[in-house]
């Protein structure tokens, strides 16, 4: 299986240099990344919202090494919020935040990440939107969930992400599926050991459906992060069974993947949110997109063969 190999490469400085230097990389990366700056990303947001879609924006970057970098990340999100407010797009675009970018892995990182993310959540609320805390590798989750719980005391609309491939996630879903909660479920895109996560696709898919049922039968607001037609159909069937209206859940898909399906679902009245990343530190995000789905890797390989 190539997925684990690509995930390992996502942490390799040597591979980062090779991929970043390849002439073919930039046009291929542009399929998944909405530019390197907020000025690049805003026209993409406008285009997506004009098509009836909503957006979750991620300023990419994870492996920071200094508190100053974490502060710069906070400021990048605040700049983004200012741009969205100026264009009147606040209610159509939320923010997705990786706490590692806000200093979570640094000394006293839990407190640092909370201090950095709070003003972003406050600013988002001011313009009528919210923030979702992304899930990262399993060692970070207790801290992420604790920060999520703390933020929800003042900003109950703050969302979080759970990953179906982790054994712990069913229990997390039962705890989170409460009134007022916003929970995005994804399969998971980090290289995790067999001691904490399912390794086979069939096992992950079954876990995803079990967790999806918990969320759909709960009292919160499920956000279904998947491009899988089967899981989309299962979501629609579960919604019918439990009596959820179209506005009581949403689908989320990645920028650059299955755009026609995004438009089709939105035309049917579903809320569809496009996870849209931008920024200069795109490498780790890009490699995980390749690892998630063989079609993405084939697209990259075909581009290298035809343009290299």
From TrEMBL:
Q: Specify the superkingdom.
A: Bacteria
From the UniProt record, give the pathway where this protein acts: Amino-acid degradation; L-proline degradation into L-glutamate; L-glutamate from L-proline: step 1/2
Identify one Pfam family in the record: Pro_dh
Q: Keywords assigned by UniProt?
A: FAD, Flavoprotein, Nucleotide-binding, Oxidoreductase, Proline metabolism
The protein's matches in PANTHER family, at most eight in alphabetical order, are given as:
PROLINE DEHYDROGENASE 1, MITOCHONDRIAL (PTHR13914:SF0), PROLINE OXIDASE (PTHR13914)
Locate the Proline dehydrogenase domain: which residues? 45-301
Q: What is its EC number?
A: 1.5.5.2
InterPro entries (alphabetical): FAD-linked_oxidoreductase-like, PRODH_bac_arc, Proline_DH_dom, Proline_oxidase
Q: What class of enzyme is it?
A: oxidoreductase
Its recorded reaction(s) are: L-proline + a quinone = (S)-1-pyrroline-5-carboxylate + a quinol + H(+)
Q: Which organism is it from?
A: Streptomyces xiangluensis
What cofactors does the UniProt entry give for this protein?
Answer: FAD
Name of the protein:
proline dehydrogenase
């Amino acid at each position: 299986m190539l997925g684990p190999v690509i995930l390992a490469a996502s942490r390799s400085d040597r591979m980062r240099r090779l991929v970043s230097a390849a002439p073919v990389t930039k046009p291929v990366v542009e399929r998944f990344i909405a530019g390197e700056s907020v000025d690049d990303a805003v026209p993409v947001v406008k285009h997506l919202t004009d098509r009836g879609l909503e957006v979750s924006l991620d300023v990419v970057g994870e492996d920071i090494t200094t508190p100053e970098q974490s502060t710069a990340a906070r400021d990048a999100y605040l700049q983004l919020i200012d741009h969205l407010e100026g264009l009147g797009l606040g209610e159509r675009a939320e923010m997705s935040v990786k706490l590692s970018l806000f200093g979570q892995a640094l000394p006293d990182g839990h407190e640092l990440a909370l201090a950095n993310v709070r003003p972003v959540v406050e600013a988002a609320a001011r313009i009528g939107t919210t923030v979702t805390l992304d899930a990262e590798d399993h060692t970070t989750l207790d801290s992420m969930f604790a920060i999520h719980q703390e933020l929800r005391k003042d900003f109950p609309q703050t969302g979080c992400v759970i990953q179906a491939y982790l054994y712990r996630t069913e229990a997390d879903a039962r705890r989170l599926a409460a009134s007022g909660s916003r929970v995005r479920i994804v399969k998971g895109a980090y290289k995790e050991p067999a001691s904490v996560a399912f390794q086979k696709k069939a096992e992950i898919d079954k876990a995803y459906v079990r967790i999806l049922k918990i969320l759909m039968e709960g009292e919160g607001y499920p956000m279904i992060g998947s491009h899988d037609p089967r899981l989309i159909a299962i979501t629609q069937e579960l919604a019918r069974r439990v009596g959820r209206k179209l506005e009581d859940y949403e689908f989320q898909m990645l920028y650059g993947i299955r755009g026609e399906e995004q438009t089709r679902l939105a035309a049917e009245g579903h809320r569809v949110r496009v996870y849209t990343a931008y920024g200069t530190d795109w490498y780790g995000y890009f490699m995980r997109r390749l690892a998630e789905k063989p079609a993405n890797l084939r697209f990259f390989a075909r581009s290298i063969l035809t343009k290299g």
